[in-house]
Design brief:
The protein is mostly helical. It has eight helices and two strands; from the N terminus they run αααβααβααα. α2 packs parallel to α4 and α3 packs antiparallel against α4. A two-stranded antiparallel ribbon has the order 1-2. Helices cover 65% and strands 2% of the residues.
């Protein structure tokens, strides 16, 4: 059964059309990037970043750089809860990097650094595979099925998970564990919401049938 909450209803069709306008879409993108950019600037100015935090934040910087040139959507969800989820998940990344206490390293440093660099490389590959089709809220742009998206359906979230784990291993504490667990949870739920929205398109439904894993090839 189709999710009618994702379809324009009486009085909402014009608003949906407005959100799909290229100028409006990019304006929303630029406004959405301001808080993340400020948080990143604040932490760099403090000069207290380690390489794991830097790599986590670099993913946000790459996100900001691509958002302002993204392709306008064909349709955008109007569900306010999905918008809230999208923004919480997105801003949880720099927030966690800022809020995580010093904690205690629980593995050798080279393991943490390797995971951190792996996460960044996955993120770069996934971002450029996605190209100008990036977004925060569930929206249908051009469906990408190649590159990183030929391996899993949400490779950008995979990169975030890897960097979250690296941060936890370097700065383990109860607070960091909670922040990381919530950060991963937001993106797990966001993955399900996006798929629920996009699978109404037959091309995306076929893509889901072909690429079975969401985050880890052959596993999850």
């Amino acid at each position: 059964m189709a999710d009618t909450s994702l379809q324009p209803r009486d009085g909402s069709s014009s608003f949906s059309t407005l959100l799909a306008d290229a100028r409006v879409d990019r304006t929303v993108a630029m406004i959405a990037c301001i808080p993340a950019a400020y948080l990143i600037y604040w932490r760099f100015r403090e000069g207290t970043l380690d390489i794991v935090r830097i790599n986590l934040i670099l993913q946000s910087l790459l996100f900001i750089a691509l958002m302002v040139a993204r392709r306008p959507p064909v349709r955008v969800t109007l569900n306010p809860w999905f918008w809230l989820l999208a923004f919480v998940a997105t801003y949880w990344i720099p927030f966690t990097a800022l809020a995580a206490p010093a904690g205690t390293p629980i593995v050798r440093r080279w393991v943490t650094l390797a995971l951190s660099w792996l996460g960044l490389l996955i993120g770069i590959y996934a971002r450029f595979s996605l190209g100008r089709n990036i977004g925060i809220v569930p929206a249908q742009r051009r469906i990408v099925t190649t590159g990183a998206y030929g391996l899993v359906r949400h490779p950008i979230y995979t990169a975030t998970f890897v960097n979250y784990v690296a941060l936890l291993l370097l700065r383990y504490s109860r607070l960091t564990a909670i922040l990381v667990a919530l950060g991963i949870l937001w993106f797990v739920v966001k993955s399900l919401v996006e798929e629920h929205f996009l699978r109404a398109d037959s091309e995306y439904a076929a893509y889901m049938a072909r690429v079975r894993r969401r985050w880890i090839p052959g596993l999850l």
